[in-house]
Automatic annotation (TrEMBL):
<keyword id="KW-0812">Transmembrane</keyword>
<protein>
    <recommendedName>
        <fullName>Cardiolipin synthase N-terminal domain-containing protein</fullName>
    </recommendedName>
</protein>
<keyword id="KW-1003">Cell membrane</keyword>
<keyword id="KW-1133">Transmembrane helix</keyword>
<dbReference type="InterPro" id="IPR027379">
    <property type="entry name" value="CLS_N"/>
</dbReference>
<dbReference type="Pfam" id="PF13396">
    <property type="entry name" value="PLDc_N"/>
</dbReference>
<feature type="transmembrane region" description="Helical">
    <location>
        <begin position="47"/>
        <end position="70"/>
    </location>
</feature>
<dbReference type="GO" id="GO:0005886">
    <property type="term" value="C:plasma membrane"/>
</dbReference>
<feature type="transmembrane region" description="Helical">
    <location>
        <begin position="20"/>
        <end position="41"/>
    </location>
</feature>
<keyword id="KW-0472">Membrane</keyword>
<feature type="domain" description="Cardiolipin synthase N-terminal">
    <location>
        <begin position="32"/>
        <end position="70"/>
    </location>
</feature>
């Protein structure tokens, strides 16, 4: 057995694609976390739910920020729909 194959068998060698995939996952996770924390910080909501979302984002660095950003977008869309429905009802 050659030294290169022995090192690969022991785990001393990681393929470049493996390193690349993990690097992309880590960078994407950090970017998602940063975007979600900035969105959380700019939010005017200071309820206990908002604080729980902050800790969820920190505890689950990929799923937490995605969940927070999706939930925030859904909540904003519902508020806009309610505001437009209220605006249409009051003008009639």
């Amino acid at each position: 057995m050659s030294p290169a194959s022995a090192a690969a068998a022991v785990g001393g060698f990681t393929p470049a694609t493996y390193d690349l995939v993990w690097t992309v996952v880590v960078v994407a996770g950090v970017a998602l976390l940063a975007a979600a924390v900035v969105a959380w910080g700019r939010s005017t909501d200071r309820s206990i739910v908002s604080l729980v979302w902050f800790f969820v984002m920190l505890a689950f660095p990929i799923v937490g920020p995605i969940g927070y950003l999706v939930e925030t977008r859904r909540r904003r869309r519902l508020q806009r729909e309610e505001a437009s429905a209220d605006g249409g009802a009051s003008s009639s």
